[in-house]
Design goal:
With 248 residues, the chain is α/β, with parallel strands linked by helices. The protein contains ten helices and twelve strands. The chain is 40% helix and 29% strand. It has a six-stranded mixed sheet with strand order 6-9-10-3-11-12, with helices on both faces. It has a four-stranded antiparallel sheet with strand order 2-1-4-5. Strands 7-8 form a two-stranded antiparallel sheet. α2 (72-78) crosses α3 and α6 (148-162) packs parallel to α7. The longest helix has 15 residues, at 95-109. The radius of gyration is 18 Å and the shape is globular.
Length: 248
């Protein structure tokens, strides 16, 4: 599904990614771990096409297409979704209008007619239940006045509505209490299929206890320095990252 080959990227002239190689197949969940500043969020931003980052070398292929040749909105329409570390508020834009515009923009890209209003509202009701999103929240402006947990829950709700092929969760567990973490993680797990994949960026094992990744990567200084199974995350939980640095 996703193939990243020798990816180098910079921001404001400073190189952050220094040769990333990563392959994510259909149905796989990959955890990306590393200390602050290692390049984890940079990688997610480059995949979705954040304009502040410049790719200086390498390729990103998504289902055989050259992702770097596509605009950010085209990448989203192709089926890539990013759950932000700090979801933004959009005052004056209701969740209903926001989601309907996003859904119909993707349908237009796919050559489909806009979804009928009744069908859209029915879909919203179904997807809200997955992440236990209160109807009152769904009727308000996007993330306005939401708590941290509500914002993250809303992100998973948006993912449920858009049904992406590849979801990138950038520290979705940040700031969540135990109950909110469980709801968000269980919502994510309900959306998993054999044809969808995810990259989960996190510092902590507690999220991975719920999501159960297939592969764990450690990013240091802009490079993936170690790849292993779920046991790698457990080892990091016990010993931190320094032992990996010492072995390099």
């Amino acid at each position: 599904m996703l193939e990243i080959i020798d990816l180098h990227a910079s921001i404001n002239g400073k190189e952050i990614l220094k040769g990333i190689n990563l392959t994510v197949r259909e149905g796989e969940v990959h955890a990306l771990m590393g200390q602050n500043g290692a390049g984890k969020s940079t990688l997610s931003n480059v995949i979705v096409g954040h304009p502040s980052y410049t790719v200086t070398q390498g390729q990103i292929l998504f289902n055989g297409k050259d992702l770097l040749a596509l605009k950010p909105e085209e990448r989203a329409h192709e089926g890539i979704f990013l759950s932000f570390q700090q979801p933004v508020e959009i005052p004056g834009v209701s969740m209903v209008n926001f989601m309907r515009a996003a859904l119909n923009a993707r349908r237009k890209y796919q050559g489909l007619e806009p979804m009928a209003a009744g069908d859209f509202l029915k879909l919203m009701r179904e997807k809200r239940k997955i992440v236990e999103l209160d109807n009152k929240l769904a009727s308000r402006s996007v993330n306005e006045g939401f708590s941290g947990g509500e914002k993250k829950r809303n992100e998973i709700f948006q993912m449920a509505m858009l049904e992406p092929k590849l979801s990138i969760l950038d520290e979705t567990d940040s700031g969540l209490d135990v109950d909110a973490l469980r709801v968000v993680a269980e919502g994510f797990n309900k959306l998993r299929t054999s044809e969808t994949s995810a990259i989960v960026i996190t510092h902590y094992q507690r999220l991975l206890d719920y999501l159960k990744p297939d592969v764990v990567h450690v990013l240091m200084n802009g490079r993936i320095v170690r790849t292993d199974g779920p046991q790698l995350a457990l080892e990091i939980e016990k010993r931190g990252f320094e032992w990996i640095r010492e072995e390099l």
